[in-house]
Amino acid sequence: MSPDTRVRALALSLDADYYGVADLAPAREFIHAQGGDTVARYPRAVVMGMVLHDSIVDLLPGRDKAGAILYRHCTYDVVNLALDQIALKVANALRREGFDAFPIPASKRTDDEHICGVFSQKLAAHLAGLGWIGKSCLLVTPDHGPRVRWVTVLTDAPLEPTGSPMAPRCGDCTACVDVCPVSAFTGREFSEDEPREARFNAAACERYFKEMENQKGVAVCGMCLWVCPWGRKGKGASVVATRDKEKHE
Ligand code: SF4
Ligand code: SF4
After folding, report:
1. What gap in Å lies between CA 89 and CA 36, rounded to an integer?
2. pTM of the entire structure?
3. What letter does residue 149 receive in the DSSP assignment?
């Protein structure tokens, strides 16, 4: 069995729904600017995703206190912990095969000024060909929209990249831009030449969360994630998704 087959099989057996390998070379400069030598020295990333349950994501529009508490627990506590466990086990397996591996936590902010972690999971998933970066700055997959959380293991193992970056499929849709209560998105499509600030005011989103925390004791929004037609199912799904899917398939 090749290392690629072994690592993929391990990740899927540990309950990952998505698996990919990204060649990080095209984004080296960006990765170095965000995380420095510690992360930029790795040539590849194994990226794994877990699909969020619609029953949990669909608690978001109501955002009453009970729904907010349940969403936070299931998503931030349970799923992030499960992803961190998958990353640890994949990194352990790579280490035992003689490779260097660095598990990046599913959600751990290390930079308060730029409101980000040491490495972008979404960038890795994008480079691995698993989805595109939407106008919401979330990674949007064709099958589950942005309703997926990600974790990454950086490595020097000679794994084969699984794909190349997917072109944006947002089309004319502006649902995430329109739904945001603090107008945090500019509506610009992702471009690797532009900083995140050209598309997203992360500070406005964070202020909104802090206000909610102060007022209600629990902060949850996620409407940009909930509203995306690529993640919504059945009657509620926007025609945009259908139309654009037809256009791209
Ligand atoms: S989480 Fe809410 S406030 Fe933050 S960007 Fe998304 S829609 Fe806007
Ligand atoms: S809601 Fe629409 S514009 Fe926003 S990421 Fe999804 S498809 Fe793109």
Report:
1. 25
2. 0.89
3. E
